[in-house]
Amino acid sequence: MGRSTETTDFSGTVSGRLADGILLVCIANPPVNAASADVRAGLFEALARARQSPDITAVVITGAGRTFVGGADIREFGKPAVEPGLPAVVARIEAMDKPIIAAINGPALGGGCEIALACHYRIAGEAAKLGLPEVKLGIVPGAGGTQRLPRLVGLARAAELIASGRLLSADEALACGLVDRIAGDDLVGAAIAAAPGLIAGALRRTGELAVPPQQADALAILAAGLVARARGQPAVAEAVRLVKLAAERPLAEGLAEERATFLRLRDSDEAAALRYVFFAERAAAKISGLAGATPRPIRVVGIAGTGLMGSGIALSALAAGYQVIATDRSPAAAESGRSRITALVDRAVRAGRIEAKGGAEWLGRLLVGSSLAALAPADLVVEAVFDDLAVKMELFAQLDAIVGSCAVLATNTSYLDPDVLAAVTRQPARVCGLHFFSPAHVMRLVEVVRCGKTSPDVLVTGIAFARQLGKLPIVSGVGEGFIGNRIFSAYRREAEFLIEEGALPQEIDAAIEAYGFAMGPFAVFDLAGLEIAWARRKRQAAQRDPALRYVDIADRLCEAGRFGQKSGRGWYAYVDGERRVDPDVVAMIDLSRAAKKIVARHVPADEIVARLLAAMVQEGEAILAEGIAERASDIDLVMINGYGFPARKGGPMFASGRREPG
Ligand code: T1G
To answer: Is residue 152 predicted with pLDDT exceeding 60?
Structure first.
């Protein structure tokens, strides 16, 4: 390669250009420059060329587009390995006797971060993000991350970063020594300019650096905390073990142990489930019938109803930078709404999620009042008033007359038919559902409901708004309970059947918690409150098919004033906030069984889990058949992000054997 600016292709996705002795290597593997087999082969070849050619005095590696390297190519997992593997590429980078400089132009994640770690110098652009998020895929870094990161940032920080999978901004990466410099606009120029200094000096190979000493007790306490918070995720415990190993073993041994652990975890069911969830989230963004539709601009968000849900939605909108106008039915209700929202902002400041001045800026964009007319400037209004059809119909008719003709009207109803609400407006096409989950400022899931007449641009507006709030939007058609609540009702029904047959609430909860749910169904029912479902059952009683099996135990609990945690007793008793098995409940269950002449039997834990999963899957299949969900993996995402289904099981549809998002 002479002294020229011509470009050389080292593979289909890696090219190089030589300028003044510096080989600028560019990885172009859209969409995220994943370190696929072709990228690895290209890098390997470029490094070989650099090693052989006296004209080349240094190498700069960067990514084309917005990403440096988004990680190993996850789509290659489970397929036959293609050499060179990433460890070999990384080892070659580190061993080079000419400076290899990483010009980190965007996300350098997983294998991308490991490539940067092996370079002799790291310069980050302002858009850079660095991290080792492998645990989110049920694996550990497999190309040196657990051994090289501690050598740069110390054991404790490395353990925390790898166990959490948290990403660092360029500033944070500089502050902890992960990168050496941040460049302004001309990142590649800065990297090339840094070369002469590095050529002159001794190369700093990360792998040869000593692991900074760390107080063993402090590390042990930190490690225990990280593993405890992971609630049994094996990848986190393994990641922490490997980071600690970096201080105990020579690099080569640590790398070998890391690789063996990576390969073992990569082929685990848990990792397969988390990969499925990763791609399911990407697939959920692809919705039929929206080609060419663009979101309407949203600057001002209106919230009608400032109760628990309304105030949480208001906080999320403030956090996302919107102007927020919130109203409630009376000055008193509006005032308590304002205090509720203000309290949420104060809590975010106290928790360090935002600075005090940030909190004040948020509240500066909030208007709260009791006049619906105040919502006139809103580009989108979300109603979150009490889930009563008559109340909501009247509200929608009023909103329709108040807001501008381009404004979107969204309902946060959980169970009511949004088509009925749309029908009271002059433009049903501008109505959709935005079904948030409680607490709305915490829960990631939003069911974006496509009503019968919702126009494509209104639906994409709802989706874009949910994304802007940092939520995961899943599109649902109209049907009782949309996706999540409908499946949850089937789950509840089956759980109550199991009670009737002989299982006890604590046994069912224990079985489901052992399966991986944070909380079993009966504990959840008590947390949410039993009266809402009871009111709905009473509303539906007249239409209920008498031939259908019906368990009345929950009704008996409510008739006895047992509404759950808020009333101190439900399926359990709550003493000083502690959940206790209540013999009175067992007696009520026995009475109900006796009334139906049911002889209780022992229901094994695996039968409990299998039946509850089967009930969810059966309802999921019905939802798919009715076209209410676009794909099975959307159902899995709803259950994982809205109902505590363990992500590492992939969701009910995945657990039932569906392996591909779709
Ligand atoms: N491999 C394969 N495909 C990937 C990918 C990857 N690593 N990352 C993204 N994609 C696809 C994604 O499916 C989507 O495809 C498209 O790219 C755009 O993604 C040895 C083993 C980089 C921050 O965990 O976090 O390295 O739907 O919508 O919002 O230690 O993608 O268009 O067909 O998310 O701009 C570790 C995963 C891997 C990072 C970009 N890396 N990626 O976000 O785009 S394990 C990760 C992301 C590893 C080593 C181990 C994000 C992003 P499609 P997108 P984005």
So the answer is: yes
What residue owns the CA closest to ligand 1's atom 52? 70
- Determine the Cα–Cα distance for residues 447 and 466; give it in Å rounded to an integer: 9
Name which of 20-34, 296-310, 339-353 the model is least confident about: 339-353
Give the pLDDT of residue 218: 82
Q: Whose CA is nearest to atom 21 of ligand 1?
A: 72
User: Six-digit token pair at 379?
Assistant: 């580009």
Q: Where are the alpha helices (DSSP H) in 299-355?
A: 308-319, 331-350
Cβ atoms of residues 421 and 304 within 8 Å: no
Structure tokens at 500: 């009737």
What distance in Å separates the CA atoms of residue 24 and residue 309, rounded to the nearest whole number? 53
Please identify which residue in the block is written with the tokens 């392996």: 659
For the chain, the straight-line distance linking the first and the last C-alpha, in angstroms and rounded, comes to: 47
Residues with CB under 6 A from ligand 1: 31-32, 34, 67, 70-75, 86, 107, 109-111, 114, 133-134, 137, 141-143, 145, 279, 282
The tokens describing 260, both together, are: 């063996």
Radius of gyration of the chain (CA): 28
Which residues fall within 8 angstroms of residue 56, CB to CB, at 6 or more apart? 1, 18, 21, 22, 23, 49, 50, 98
Question: For 167-192, how does the pLDDT look when each residue is reduced to its tens digit (9 = 90+)?
Answer: 999 999 999 999 999 998 899 999 99
How many angstroms from the chain centroid is the CA of residue 41?
33
Mind telling me the catalytic residues? 114, 134
Residue 271 or residue 214, greater confidence: 271
- Quote the pTM value: 0.94
With a cut of 70, say whether residue 5 has pLDDT above it.
Answer: no
> With b meaning 16 or more CB within 10 Å and e meaning fewer, what string describes 78-91?
eeeeeebbbbebbb
- Do β-strands 129-131 and 107-109 pair in parallel, antiparallel, or remain unpaired? parallel
